[in-house]
Structures are given as C-alpha cells and as structure tokens.
Amino acid sequence: MPRRRPSRGSVVLLSGGMDSATCLAIAARDAAPVDALTLYYGQRHEREIAAARRLARHFRVRRHIVLRLPLRPLLRSSLTDRRAPLPHRASSSRPTRIPPTYVPARNTLLLSLALGYAESYRLASIYLGVNALDYSGYPDCRPEFLAAFRRVARLATRAGVEERRPIDVRAPLVRKTKAEIVRMGERLRVPWAKTWSCYAGGRRPCGVCDSCRLREKGFREAGVTDPALTRRSGSPRKRRRHSASPSR
Fold this sequence. Notes:
By secondary structure, this protein is α/β, with parallel strands linked by helices.
C-alpha cells in the first residue's frame, strides 16, 4: 500500500468580510499553503463574493473555490429573503435573542464542506473567522459549537479514525473583540478596502445594518479609519496605521 504523504496546509472559509480576511492573513502566515472556500448559498447579494475573490488574489492563495449551492429555499433567514427587513441596532448594544439574520445551520454546512475538502486534499487545518464577543448572537459562532465540531472532525473522518491525524478546526478570533481584530488585521496588513461587511449589499455600505454597526464599532474603538466609511461619505480614502509594527 503506498505511503500517504503527511498532511500540511489549510483551507480558510472566506466570506469576504473583515473577520474572514483577518483569518486568511493569519493562515497565510501560520499554515501555508492556503486554499480558500467561499460559499454562495443564496445571500441577498454577491458583493461579499467579489470581496472574497479580491482577498484571495491579494493573499495569493493556492486555490480559491467559489461554490454555488441553491440553498435559499431551505435556509429561511432575512439574509436569504430579500423581502424581509434587516434588523438595526445600536452598535453598543448586546444581542439578547438570536436575530433574524441567523442562517440555520450555515456554519455547520460550511465546516462540513471544508472538512471534506481538507481530508480530500490532506490539509492539516480549517480556519474560520467566527467571533463570540462582539457579534450578532449566532449560536454557531460560540466556542461550544467549535468544540463539538472538532469532535465530529475526529470521529467522522478517516483522517481522525484510521490515520490518527484529526483535522484541526481553528478559530483564532473567537474570543477577540472587533477592536482587537482590527488591530490584529493592521499588524497583518489586511487590505480593509477589499473587504465587504454590509448585509444590504448596495453600491456602498448602508452603515445601519447589524454588520455595519459592529464593523464601525471595531474600527472606532481601535482608533483606525475604515476605508468603507470614507467610501460612503465620499471623502478621500485615508488609513491610519496602528502603532504596532507590521508582521508581514
């Protein structure tokens, strides 16, 4: 029986937003070679898909797969139903209930696809940019969910059972605030202007949806100018660098 080559490298679940962009920068630094997987499941818009393509090119990933699955009829959410209103909240408030922007089982589906891909191509790890501090209150962004999925990765794959090389599921941002993510992204030279966070998906970020509010909160608390804000206001694009020296 031919000897299997050792596993190395990673696959990043790349949505095109600020968190997944920072996650991609971390993987490019720590877990090369890097592949990226982006899923279009029937979102309101494709602006984030275009952002994911820009980021994949910027970080020179080895392979970027954009997978289109017609899941809109199955996954009921205000992110898949253009007729449903998007909720707004103050950037300083904490979620008390799971919001209508929650997409049922989205991260479970994404991780399952990434797990199959990582095992097929003998990649050592999966990276995803979930966050459980400054976030929208989604149940599949919590450390408890990640711990459960790591167990699935160990028990439900040949890599974990027969080869005893379970694929690692890494969420380096899960316990960080948005401000901490911005500071980390500054050190890693994440190109914020290439990212997209807005749920509405217009020509410019709306500035009032939950995702825009959280993004604004992170940049404001980090003391960094967000290119998305300068785009929306029409003022010249300026970027204030964080005082830490870049790591790349």
